[in-house]
Amino acid sequence: MIIDCHGHxxxxxxxxxxxxxxxxxxxxxxxxxxxxxSLKISDDQIRAGLEGAQLKLQRERGTDVTIFSPRAMGMGHxxxxxxxxxxxxxxxxxxxxxxxxxxxxxxxxxCQLPQTPGVSPRNCIRELERCVRELGxxxxxxxxxxxxxxxxxxxxTDRYWYPIYEKMAELDVPxxxxxxxxxxxxxxxxxxxxxxxxxxxFMQFIMGDIFKDFPSLKFIIPHGGGAAPYHWGRYRGLAxxxxxxxxxxxxxxxxxxxxxxxxxxxxxxxxxVIPTDNILFASEMVxxxxxxxxxxxxxxxxxxxxIDAVTWISKEDKEKIFHRNVRKVYPRLAVKH
Amino acid sequence: MIIDCHGHxxxxxxxxxxxxxxxxxxxxxxxxxxxxxSLKISDDQIRAGLEGAQLKLQRERGTDVTIFSPRAMGMGHxxxxxxxxxxxxxxxxxxxxxxxxxxxxxxxxxCQLPQTPGVSPRNCIRELERCVRELGxxxxxxxxxxxxxxxxxxxxTDRYWYPIYEKMAELDVPxxxxxxxxxxxxxxxxxxxxxxxxxxxFMQFIMGDIFKDFPSLKFIIPHGGGAAPYHWGRYRGLAxxxxxxxxxxxxxxxxxxxxxxxxxxxxxxxxxVIPTDNILFASEMVxxxxxxxxxxxxxxxxxxxxIDAVTWISKEDKEKIFHRNVRKVYPRLAVKH
Lengths: 337, 337
Prior knowledge:
2 copies of one chain form a homodimer.
Chain A: E1 3-9, H1 14-25, H2 43-51, H3 54-61, E2 65-70, H4 82-102, E3 107-109, E4 111-112, H5 125-134, E5 140-142, H6 162-171, E6 175-177, H7 189-207, H8 210-213, E7 219-221, H9 232-241, H10 247-251, E8 255-258, H11 264-273, E9 279-280, E10 292-293, E11 298-299, H12 303-309, H13 315-329
Parallel strand pairs in A: 1-2, 2-3, 4-5, 5-6, 6-7, 7-8, 8-9
Antiparallel strand pairs in A: 10-11
Helix pairs in contact in A: 5-6
């Protein structure tokens, strides 16, 4: 069994984008109460978008289940206001639910939250609860920077975020820390903002004390943990200089890394540095990098190949990475698979 | 010969900090024209700060020369205005010059630039010219985010920055890309802002075309290139998806990485992924991480040990990393050492 914990619905029918464009265009309208509107997408359209992409790649690469969420770049929490974000998130999450209902063996849902810069994450509780209790979702994506590259909300360890953590703890669902598009021209989205978001969140977790307040809370830092594993010595040293306990004790009961690292040396480092119990298999296909690596002849994002090529960890450790750890981090997954 | 290309004057006499505090305190004064003021520090005070720290560590670790610049965290380009920044930079650079004059065999100067958010880098030309032509400095530190964590100036590839690049090209000096303190509570300075700054700059260089306009320009991305080497596959793939040439051709004539990575697996990855010609030895001692790694019994930032421990690169390659490359990247170094 191979479970990919990080897939986004990047191949949704174009009606979704049309809806979003219309929603954004209407932001300038004088109407006092924007309407939620509706999305007309047939099951066949959904099937067509997946069959030639995610499902084909699952078959070709030999992965079984993808934990699936709305397109990260599309979340765009900085656009409009909290009503904009609520309507958009509900539509996106409903669509994920339809995908998971059409292909219950292949996809399990994770939701986008209706975050808005400067608006308390308390605002997201209703949608998280709806997705988990009504749609059977098993986690959420939490954007540490709803402003889209301006980093205006407090760090993730601030009490500002506690309402959503309380609900996550109650529902027993984890969050993947995942930024969305960047509207700061300094940050290329997938090349800088994503990786910086990961690195930033990791360092926030070192400094803060949220796991004392929420000992059961679990976060996945995607894209191989940003820069954290490569600079593991720096982070161990910084924590030590601050008088913190070793990283393992400080946060490795609560923080996990995915394997979205698109070359062999990077995966080798990840597996060498981070305890196997903290690594979850993921590819983020069909995502940031779509090409074939001329050096290997395979897709950059075919991360299973890199893990298969590692000879110095045991079969049991690989099973942890491929599916055992993910079941622990997403306890609600057990219900289905 | 071992040349450390990345050292900051982190052990300056406390008079420097007192001066800065007074300068900042005076920012609220109603006087129309702030005065530069003077700094009273004796040669003996300078010697005392270095003898028990950088010089002691050079001897203990067996490194010969440190390319030395003002404390990066102290640059604080976001504080005050361009006059504040000019006065402060002149004092800091003069102090580096005194260090290099007292210990000409041990230190070579690199300057801080009097950057200010929203003010053209043209403003920095005079100080760069003074430091190189009058003080014998061989390079500069360029802050890609003078706002200190708000990232409000244009990307490094924007024509906004061209005046300083023109002067760098004329003087034949490189720049190390180095942010300063963070005043955004999301970013821990050395744990997030520094590494994010490196990653961000690297991605900007992939997207922009400045090396077509400045084929001789050279940049050092410190802290092992931020996240870039760990995510080298991602960056190769992103460049490929954008229709850019391979990274080697796109930027490796102009972009170099230092070895400030504080554990063995990180250095192993760096040396495995990045061509040896693009790696410059550095430790950033006495810097971000000051402790001893309990796993090795040695200082985290004793990076020479990690490189010494690599058995799979040749003696010639190590000589490139330890001193040959740095002479190419800093052509003015040759005059002295």
